[in-house]
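WARN no homologs supplied; continuing
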Amino acid sequence: MGRAFGPPALRQRRNPSQRGSKALAIVAEIEAEQALVAANRELITRFEQKIQATLARIWADDLVAYVE
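OK structure emitted
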């Protein structure tokens, strides 16, 4: 039993450029997802800061009301 190298076997083999273009598409998709993750991390940081500022204001108001 030898390896088949006729036309049917050649049709079954993938074109290397097709694999390369598919790999590039996958890499582009992963990079786009990484950009979204980075943007979401920045949003999380911003909202954490806003929450902390709001809590500090609320606690300061409560403290002033308590002291008065």
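The mean pLDDT is 82.
OK
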